[in-house]
């Protein structure tokens, strides 16, 4: 216990945890700061049948991660804890491909779960694509992309350029893979399929039920028939353009938008005739390697998992500031985007802002940008000011017509092609138009813009507040403590004290406090405490929450504790990520704020 | 002077001017000069001994500087540190590195320079000058609490001070007591004042600017900023930087400095930002704040009463035209005084006919200035899609040629008030609205719906200004 009392002791402790996490992020084999499901790891293992790039240590590390995530009933589960047929298919296949005995008890259980859930035909596009590439099923298990779409101008509604950045890379790669068609020698996972009485695999339905879906299915069939016709100049040109898209979208760090687009794009390049020792393929594989990291799966067990991106800048910013690391601001400023990116297609703003990962040079991430703006508070050097000015302009330009803010590209949640009744159509969007991730992002943006001087007098801020108000009216009852806390912090700076949204969210948040002063786990309590402090008057609820938090911090024994993690929005087939360092960061931020704004525990 | 060193106060004056700021002092001086035979008496009353503590206008366009020169203030002001200024430089955003330069010297037939001076210096020098005038009595530290009436006509003022109450009769009371004029209220003149927000002011010494002798308007941030020189001391310039703040102040007290550093400084050019950051860090106590109002010009005269300066209408200070308006008011009211310089001393110096002619003249230049100031403030603040569209259009228009810049500046500097010019400027800007709103600056495939929204906003806002343009044109054309 330090001389300053329990609050100071808890502060010192939480800072030490942040320092531990900072060190973990900067080890030779860094820890993963954003942990996805096992899907990317499985796909890396499957793709290694083509690239032969993994070392034995890496292969065993990834396998250990996949095995560790298998549930007792044999399934792999999604973020909600439900058995997921796609993850289970991939997990099963990756293990068998790596040499595990398919007759092992846990794999037999996994196969049973797959069959109970409807077999691989019910799995997502990724699994069906792997099955098609392995030759286990026909290519009509994956939807066909009309080549001509690539000849459309980029502003056209049906142009693949209008897809979300994740989907754009995936669909383009899929198009090239299907056009090849790609063939990879993988373990024949025919047991993943369900068969009818004639021993023929039951095919999936590619479209949604209904007349529109039936028509689209017929359209899909007609495209396949059209492909059997002699190849014309249109098809050649469109394939050439798709390939150029793939080549142009590779970033300086070697990767594409994230791990899965990188895996698929590399395979597409190989199908297009690029050799394994081509620098583009090598740098792509190096990127995948950098996106892997250590994950702690038990008190003593550490494994290797495939992340979605390289080292996340948001974590560098949050942990660096909390841990008091010298030079972190300069590092953040150096990571500012300096080249034009696809996000500028529809957002009228200069180059600037920050990407989700260090060394990326194309994809803006508004969430990371907001986190870095927060981290740069109080350091107003000439270099910072220029970055802030650009960031403010970019953030404002990323506003959607409905008032909310897009994370990567404007229009990412309202892709026109996603309106078609494809079964996988929602994967073309990135997030929903009013899901909680967008609420949190909009609240973060409003908070950071307030610091930069943009208030409700500006019609764009007023529109964002109105969007929050509408979304709260529809879904606010189901918002988590973390979401409510973010919205309260935003409304405190943007809305007057008696604004209905501010009052409603504050009241809703206050009612979630429990008898012991907590708001659930340490993370929720820390976030709620930040919001209660932001409200202004030091209240009894804030004191109780702080007391509870300090008590809990004191009760955690180890120096590298398993603090509660939080969910982050991911992309595409990995919609949720886990953030294991969130607990340390949030607790330190909340206690620091309490010390600064309130003072001592009452 | 009486035994306590105060000026001897008579019971009656020809003119009582309430307010010894720029407009009041200039009017007193102008009237005194108009009274060649020195038969008239003028009383100037002000609430504050010395200078009002609140910071106020400091930038004067060439036409105003000419009035100051004609009245004999100019040389004294320059000797006291006032700076000759060359015009305006307007920066669209921090990223834009070719600001629009609007030079007074390019306006044909106009004095090539304006004047900028620290407000406290200005008032101190002007009051000192007045004290040398034998027809003028300057009374400081007295508050006007009532007006004396003779039926509908105002015929005097009731003053209170530490030494009691004074009732002073006169032929004409002139309200020169600023935008929150007490006299205007006491006279029951309709007051449609709207509070726009606040202006925070900061003095910065030795800042490095590319155009130090211009008023630098810097946009792009949450509100416009204005930076101009206010004094020269041993060759070193001091600058005034003003920040436009919304009505609901985002921060108060010491927090305001931090807010300004976070919100406004990123938009200032590098070296200036450094000087301002340094000045804000060193600043002790609260920053100087002044409320900004939009006061549509009330009737400038009533029987026995005239309004001048901000009391007769004011706008946001972004166009820096308020001081020039006050000086023009003084000039035109003094012109009427000169006309009646020869009437016998027992007759009112400025009668109802003089006031009517003054009002006709006043009502010709004030609406133009107010319409311009309001529109430019709206565009520069850019709080709506339409306003931002107009702002883009303005810059596009200004960058399209020297002639365009000259015409705009002439209007801004109150040197041009022909209705056809005003109308032509309006139409040309409206034309540029379309082009600038349809063409994005950075986006490769800016959605058509967004372009249309921008155009709709800007055209809609331009449409709301048709009435203002018509009003300005009518004010110039009407025969009475």
UniProtKB/TrEMBL annotation, chain A:
Belongs to the terpene cyclase/mutase family. It is an enzyme of class 4 (lyase). The gene is shc_3. One of its GO terms (biological process) is triterpenoid biosynthetic process. Residues 41-290 form the Squalene cyclase N-terminal domain. Keywords: Lyase, Repeat. Pathway: Secondary metabolite biosynthesis; hopanoid biosynthesis. GO terms for molecular function: intramolecular transferase activity; lyase activity. This is Squalene--hopene cyclase. It comes from the Bacteria. InterPro entries: SQ_cyclase_C (IPR032696), SQ_cyclase_N (IPR032697), Squalene_cyclase (IPR018333), Terpenoid_cyclase/PrenylTrfase (IPR008930). Its EC number is 4.2.1.129. One of its GO terms (cellular component) is lipid droplet. Residues 329-524 form the Squalene cyclase C-terminal domain.
From TrEMBL, chain B:
Its EC number is 1.14.14.17. SUPFAM superfamilies: FAD/NAD(P)-binding domain. Its cofactor is FAD. GO terms for cellular component: membrane. It is found in: Membrane. Gene3D superfamilies: FAD/NAD(P)-binding domain. The chain crosses the membrane at residues 15-32. Residues 171-448 form the Squalene epoxidase domain. One of its GO terms (biological process) is sterol biosynthetic process. GO terms for molecular function: flavin adenine dinucleotide binding; squalene monooxygenase activity. It is an enzyme of class 1 (oxidoreductase). Keywords: FAD, Flavoprotein, Membrane, Oxidoreductase, Transmembrane, Transmembrane helix. Its main location: membrane. Belongs to the squalene monooxygenase family. This is squalene monooxygenase. It comes from Enhygromyxa salina. The lineage of its organism: Bacteria, Pseudomonadati, Myxococcota, Polyangia, Nannocystales.
